[in-house]
Amino acid sequence: MIDLHTHSNFSDGTDTPSILINKAHAAGLTTIALTDHDTVAGWDEASNQLRPGLSLVLGSEISCQTTDGISVHMLGLLFDRNEEALMTMMAKTRDNRIGRMHKIIARLNAADYSITMEDVEAQLSDGATLGRPHLADALVAKGYMKSREEVFAEVLHNNSPYYVAHYSPTPEVAIELIKQAGGVAVIAHPMSSLRGRVVSAASFESYVAAGLDGIEVFHRDHTLENRELLSNIARQYDLVKTGSSDYHGNGKLNQLAEFHTDPVEFEKLESKANARRVITR
């Protein structure tokens, strides 16, 4: 089984890369991708922990935004982390998250939520990419709500009065930088309306022109109708179809390998990278 979208505590997951690798091995996965948000900080630990029989795809889930304000997540896989342009863009996105967090906290404070940046930082692992899930964990720790899911449903969703947008490249720019770094670009859960407005089918034309390689078709947040539509788009543009868990550990229902990628599709995807970068032991 191949799972091409997971997170560790180097972004908003709860498992260390080592624990994630151990869980993947126990779950019977043959290939797992580590795709923390806007960072490659967990790559070395995951690589060092890898076990025989389990292959590792290194990547990142890059936060993007369309020109009309729709949030898009782009999975960059199998890229060279020594390519400066992509690394610089991800660093800029991470840095912007700090200012954004201060603004969200200020809005919460004005609504009588007693929360500080220090409370949020206490939820981060060393080197982790800051995000709203860490603020959710801080609110849970202070007793305001019982779980991340409840916090997002009540106060941190995209239509909340506390929501603050942050710097993100357009999907086209992210795709181009992933390709320049020799990797492959797969748009993550593009029809997940649970996360806010979604891109239109027509949007894929510009993504494909920028170099898009695949679509995450099989995902917990996609309905059967979504999957049919995305499968048709994949056929129209000759894109790879992937399936993934989007596993985060505790706090989300997603389980490793609950959706997975067909080996034939993965072989096609891997062939689009400019070098063979799948790690095996």
Report on the architecture of this protein:
- The protein has ten helices and seven strands.
- With 281 residues, the protein is α/β, with parallel strands linked by helices.
- It has a domain at 97-156: DNA polymerase, domain 1 (Orthogonal Bundle).
- The chain has a seven-stranded mixed sheet.
- Helix 9 links the parallel strand 6 and strand 7.
- Helix 1 crosses helix 2 (43-49) and helix 7 (171-180) runs parallel beside helix 8.
- The radius of gyration is 18 Å and the shape is globular.
Total of helices: 10
Q: How are the strands ordered across the major sheet?
A: 1-2-3-4-5-6-7
What is the fold named in CATH at topology level of the domain at 97-156?
DNA polymerase, domain 1
CATH-scheme architecture of the domain at 97-156 = Orthogonal Bundle
Number of strands: 7
* Helix and strand sequence: EHEHEEHHHHHEHEHEH
CATH class category name of the domain at 97-156: Mainly Alpha
Radius of gyration, in Å, reads: 18 Å
> Which bin fits the share of residues in helices?
25-40%
Indicate the low-confidence ranges by residue numbers.
Answer: none
Basic shape: globular
Average of the residue pLDDT scores: 94
Q: Assess the beta-strand content as a share of residues.
A: 5-15%
First and last CA, distance: 17 Å
Major pleated sheet: 7 strands, mixed
Short structural summary:
This protein is an alpha/beta fold and 281 residues long. The chain is 38% helix and 15% strand.
